[in-house]
Every structure is written in C-alpha cells, then in structure tokens.
Amino acid sequence: MRQRTYGHLPSELNRFVGRGGELAGLMRLLESSRLVTVTGVGGVGKSRLALAAARALDGGADSGQGSAGGAQERYCDGIRLAELACVRDPALLELTLAEALGLTDHTTRPPRTVLAEHLAGRNLLLVLDGFEQLVDETADLVQELLLRSPGLRVLAAGRRPLALPGERAFPLAPMAPDEALELLVERAAEADPGFGPDAQERAALAEVCARLDGIPLAVELAAARLRVLSPAQVLTRLEDRFALLADGGARGVLPRHRTLRTAMGWSHELCTPAERLLWARLSVFAGLFELDAAEYVCAGPDLPVEGLLDLVGALLAQSLLVREETAAGVRYRMLETVRLYGAGWLESTGDARRLRRRHRDWYMGLATWCELDWFGPRQREVRSLVEAELPNLRLALECCLDDPDEAHLGQYLAGTLWFYWAGCGRLTEGRHWLDRTLEPGPSGGSGQQEGPYESSRLKALWVLGYVAALQGDAVASMSALYECREGAAQTQNAVAAAYSVHRLGCLALVSDDMTRARELLGSALEQYRAAGELNSSVLMCQVELAMALAFQGELAGAVSLCEEVREVCEERGELWTKAYALYVLAYAALDAGATPEARRLLSECVAVNHAFHDLVGLVLALELLALVTVAEGHPAEAAVLQGAAEPMWDGVGLQLFGSGYFNAPRLMCQERAGELLGADRYAAYAAEGRQLSREALVVRAQLAPGERGRGVPSPRPAGRGGLRGTRAAGRAAADQP
C-alpha cells in the first residue's frame, strides 16, 4: 500500500515502533518552547522521533484534531525538514535551509537576510537534523532566526544541544525493554514474513535487546541477522563480542556509545570481507547514490564490478543500506552512524583519497552528461537528477578545491552546471561555487592560469558573468565577461568568445540598452553559428535578441526569431528556453489583440517556469498574464495575479534590475485595473493575491477568464496596439538617470 507523505516531510519507510510516551512529551514541550533539541547517543532514534513528532503535528495541522492541539494555527505556514548531516561547508548551511523552505532567490542578498525576511511574518516549524559538524554555525543562525521571526519554532535533533537561551533539551533514552523487543520482532518479520518466535526464542531476543541497551539502530542491525541465525545464535555471538571488548573499550567513551560501536563492530565482523570493503568505500558518498555510481567508484580488482549488485543486496538485507524511491529513480543511502563507521575503516586502509577522487570523477562525468541532456527531452529528468545528486556534487566540488593543482577541475564542474544554476533557481549557490573556484590562492585558480586548463577557467568566467547578470550585479558580471573575452582572444577560443559576447548582450538587455543588446546578441549568434555551437544557451541568445526587437516595436522580427526557436525546441524536446520564446510570442499576440492566444502561450510558460523554479521567467509571465487578464475585462483577477507576483520581485531583484521595458506590463496593468476597480478595491484584491502560495498561484493563473466570476466591463477595447503604451513606458523608464 502506498504510504502517505505528510506535506513536505519524507514518508515513513516502515512503522514507527513504540516511543509513545516520549512522542507525547516532545509534542507537549513544543507547545511551550520555541526551540527544542532532541539529544542522545548515535543510533538512539533522535531523527526518527523528531520526524514522528513533526508528522503528528502536520497531521494535526491538516485536521485540526488529535494530539497536535492548536497545530493548525501554530504552524499554519507549514512544517519543513532541513537535513544537515551532509553539509560540511558553513556557507552552504543557509542555502540548505532556504532549499528546505522552498525559497528561490536570484539576488545578491545574503542568504541569511533572505531567510530572516521570509520567516519574519510566518508561523512555521523548522526541523533540523544532523547539525553536529556545524554546531556553532547552526546555533548562531537559529538564534538570529528565532529573534527575528516570532512565529518560528525549531525542533532540532543532534548528539548535543545548541546551547542557546530558551532552548529546551529533550534527552532521549534507549527504548524500554518491551518496546525494544517489539522493534526487534517486527523488523525481523519484515525481512522474513515467516518469522514467529516461540517463548524460548522471545526470551533470547529479550536478552539480545538488553545486551544492546535498547538502542534502536543496534536492535535493527541485530534483527537483520535473524534471517540467517537463530535467536540463540544471535545472542551467543553477541555475548562473545561483548566479552571480547569488555576491557578494551576506549577510555572516556560513554557506555552507550561503546554499546553502539560494539554492535556496529559485530555487524562489521559478520560481513564477508567483500561486504566490509564495500561498506567502507560507500562511505565516500553524501546522502543518496545510485547503483551505477557505486559500481564505478567502488569496484576494482579486489571488488569486481559484476559482483557489486549482490553485495549491495547483502548490505540492504543487513540494514546497513537503505533503499529509497526518488523522482530520479531508485537510490541508496547509509544512515549517518553507519557511514561514519565505514569512513573510519576507509581511512585506516589508506585508500580514502583515491576513493574520493573516483567519486569526484564520477560526478564530473554525470554533470557533463546532464549538460548535454539539458538540450533535449530529458530536461525535467535532468533537473530531478541534479537535485537528487546535489550533496554528492557539492562533495565533488570540495574535492576539487582541496588541491590547488586541481582548481581547473572545480572550474570545469562549476561551469558545467550553468544550466542548473541559471535554469533551476540556484543562482546563489552557483555564485558561491564559481567565486570559490575562480578566486586566487590555495582554494581557487591563479587568475593568470595558462595551458590546457584555460578553457575550464574561461567557461567558469562566462557562467559567472551570466549568473551575476541575472542577480543584478552588473559590475561583477562585466568584470568576469571582459576577462573571459580577453582570455578567449588570447587563446583563440571561438566558443568562449561567443559566450562572453552573448552574456554582455544579456547584461545590456536587462539594463535597457536595447541598441547595444541588439548589436552584441546578433554578433554572438553569428559567432555561435560559425563555431557550430547549438544548445539551450544559444537558443536563449536568439530569444533575447527577439526581446530587444519586441521592446523596440519590431514585433514581426521578434516573432520570426521565436517561432524558429520554438520549432527547434519542439524537435529537441527542450522546454526551458521554449518558455521564454512563448513569453515573447505572447507579448506579440497581446499587442495584436489576440488575447486568447496570449493566455494559452503564457499558461504553458508559467507551468514550465514553475516546474524549473525559474523565478525570473515565472514572474515575467505572470505579470504579462495579468495584463492579458485586464484586457479581457477581468481587472479583479488581474489585481490578484499582480499582488501574488509582487513578493517574487524580492527574490528576482528590485523591479528586475530597474528595467523599464521588463516592468512596463506590470505598471500598465496596475494603471488599467486601478482605474476600473478604484484604489481601495485594487489594493484589497492585490492583498488577496499576496496571501497565495506559489503552487496555488500557478494553478490559479491557468484558469480560464471569468471562472472566478470577477468580470468587470472594460471601458478600453483590448484591440491591436495594446502594448504601445508598454513600449512608451519602457522607453521613458530607460531614459531616467
């Protein structure tokens, strides 16, 4: 039976056993405290309990009933989980939280500012799991967010408290004997449906639980052994293991830490040599990984690739691996405690560096293929794949930066992911990695690099220029693009030269310098054709040239360019660039008075941009759709759409970098709808729109006119030439100093 997914929380892989008293106590504590941290030894079930509490509250928020009490009101803006166990770079902490909250921000504002502003007026529960490696940075961030966000509550899970004022620690003890036994029996039955212990066997299993101090992870590892061993055999082997280590435990290690380590070591010893080796090598992965990646990274003469699938199955059977279904397909992961144990063994073999490099090489290859597949029918799959593999891609980027002699690899990888940074709402993170790989010094490039790696640096430079332009940072964009253009000329790199000219044209476009934009974008297209380059970026150059033409009233030329782009995109199955072409075609259709066609084009555009988290494309399409809506005689609904789009500008940048042309449809819609509704009614409808979630807004934007019954006769016909005022307003704004 398909398991229910609670809002934005991951679904349970199996039943949450026991812990009824602890769960009720934790939920009571959350009612009175804004920061609660579940603490305890590794493997004691901190994460599982915190998520169980969050799901119970989420269920309460849906129903308004049950033990969640007032959860519906207290967490009316949702419950979100941020998994931090794989985050090692402090700079990525805030980005990870923003990702968990579903935030997309294209500006150069510090991510902490974006987080604080987003949370300031919201009632939300944020669950933080696995913060130990960044405890100080996490504590600092949580304290600031709690101070600035009165409606925020935080439920954290870690081995130690955050040590903040007002924090309530919730120490989690091991399971009670009866609960531990229930867990052991249930997990054993999951692995072997025929498992049914008699009274004597239950007594042996109860002693196993006692030996393991009721630590859930240790109990689950023991349960996996019941597929091949009897309860008495499990107990005997475990007793032998404890006797062996009774006097040899490390000094200063808490008894229950020693218990878990003993249980882990026991599982390790019961693995075959090949299983132990794979366990150690799999520890180089962060989060989820696929079988193909495991085969490439871990296989070798001592671990033949043809036997790896069976070994993965063996580790799954022993609960040392977890299998998960994701949007990108089947993935595997290790619990963090299991991974850390394996990482220790890998370090002891002296093979860790080689394995980390193989891991890096795999993900560089994956990024390369994703860049190629982005220009094709697998574009949505590529987005899901990179999303699923992001923790491993981050790890690969870190590996590149560990060695100054390999900075070019980091530049290549950060540049190759341009489609993800620019096309999937990841500008801030892309800027972080591009800056790091290009900065001079031990962690980046020299700035004067020569030789066979120059092309990697040039690619990173034009991608940085592109990202910075979309963030509204014209100075950084021009600096990177001029350096790229100069380097391309020196090395006769025609492709890099074309990209630098293209992105300078893009910068001119968003800066309202249409004459220069047309010159540069036209030149870039000629250079692309001469170099034989064709991909989504090249087609976007053609769309941007069409925008410059459209804004200057040359709609026939703009339509011709975008029809050509649409044809190529449909042949290739490309969606992202096609959405921008549809925007220009809708702009022309509205100018011609063909509002039904404009609405159809924009509805498709909105859906694609939302799917790819492209905030720039989404807000532009929504505001043009609002102008279409008022032209159709529905000013109230237009005001709702305008109000809903308004908060998005905070994430895009103030009025799209001050562009008069891009902002003119919004200003015209406000004027027309305001005249028809009156200032007070317009403001009320706009306020209603500001309360819509992005998902609700996208659904609403695709409704047919009049479905909400807010038609108001328009005194102006929506005939041909309806966008002439838009172009005039754009020119006027562009002429302002």
Give an account of the 3D structure.
- The chain has 737 residues and is mainly α.
- Among the domains are: 20-171, P-loop containing nucleotide triphosphate hydrolases (Rossmann fold), CATH 3.40.50; 177-270, no CATH class; 575-735.
- It contains 36 helices and 7 strands.
- The protein has a 5-stranded parallel β-sheet, with helices on both faces. A two-stranded antiparallel sheet has the order 6-7.
- Helix 6 links the parallel strand 3 and strand 4 (152-158).
- Helix 12 crosses helix 14 (308-317), helix 18 (407-416) runs antiparallel to helix 20 and helix 33 packs across helix 34.
- The chain is globular.
- Mean pLDDT is 82; it is low at 1-6, 60-69, 244-256, 446-450, 709-721 and 732-737.
Set down the secondary structure blueprint.
Blueprint: H1 20-32, E1 35-39, H2 46-63, H3 71-74, E2 79-83, H4 91-100, H5 111-119, E3 124-129, H6 135-148, E4 152-158, E5 168-171, H7 177-191, H8 199-211, H9 216-225, H10 231-245, H11 255-270, H12 273-282, H13 291-298, H14 308-317, E6 322-326, E7 329-333, H15 336-349, H16 352-374, H17 379-402, H18 407-416, H19 418-423, H20 427-438, H21 454-470, H22 474-491, H23 494-510, H24 514-531, H25 536-551, H26 555-572, H27 576-591, H28 595-611, H29 615-631, H30 635-645, H31 648-652, H32 655-658, H33 660-677, H34 679-690, H35 694-701, H36 724-735
Parallel strand pairs: 1-4, 1-5, 2-3, 3-4
Antiparallel strand pairs: 6-7
Helix pairs in contact: 1-2, 4-5, 5-6, 7-8, 7-9, 8-10, 9-11, 10-11, 12-14, 12-15, 13-16, 16-17, 16-18, 17-18, 18-20, 18-21, 20-21, 21-22, 21-23, 22-23, 23-24, 23-25, 24-25, 25-26, 25-27, 26-27, 27-28, 27-29, 28-29, 28-35, 29-30, 29-33, 30-33, 30-34, 33-34, 33-36
